[in-house]
């Protein structure tokens, strides 16, 4: 039987090495390539053509969610399994909308991860059950893409004027989007809105 070919994308060298060794002990899984930065995922995947890409969300260069969307668009036959320390419902929602087939947490056992790889390789959807239940209770993100963009910019410490100039918006539009995000997240202020959105994986 041909082993399942895997691309492993994670910026933590120790974690990446451990996962590779553990998966390859399974016998039916082969790690064809490893990358440490998000912007390396697509070019390497196009070169090695893996069956499954295991992608961390928090990566330098390009975040895993954006990289997953690019990979899904350019190489749809490659199944995407997101792996993260952060079990945030918004991350799950965005991962699935970006083409991910599965979503597992990094504290899962190697047996769980290997089973997830095998199921993803067949096209089955694999989602951490606890996170799935949490996402169901919370529901989809209430924020529009514009509101997320403005909140993320506020989080960098940029002023209203700077955000407006960077996003090519009027200062009034920036203020309205901040106000709307505060209302939708039931936050006390913009800083609280950023905290709530970040904790839920909406940013």
UniProtKB/TrEMBL annotation:
The modification 4-aspartylphosphate is found at residue 56. SMART domains: HTH_LUXR (SM00421), REC (SM00448). Keywords: DNA-binding, Phosphoprotein. GO terms for molecular function: DNA binding. GO terms for biological process: phosphorelay signal transduction system; regulation of DNA-templated transcription. Residues 136-201 form the HTH luxR-type domain. Gene3D superfamilies: 3.40.50.2300. InterPro entries: CheY-like_superfamily (IPR011006), Sig_transdc_resp-reg_C-effctor (IPR016032), Sig_transdc_resp-reg_receiver (IPR001789), Tscrpt_reg_LuxR_C (IPR000792), WalR-like (IPR039420). Pfam families: GerE, Response_reg. Residues 5-121 form the Response regulatory domain. This is DNA-binding response regulator. It comes from Rugosimonospora africana.
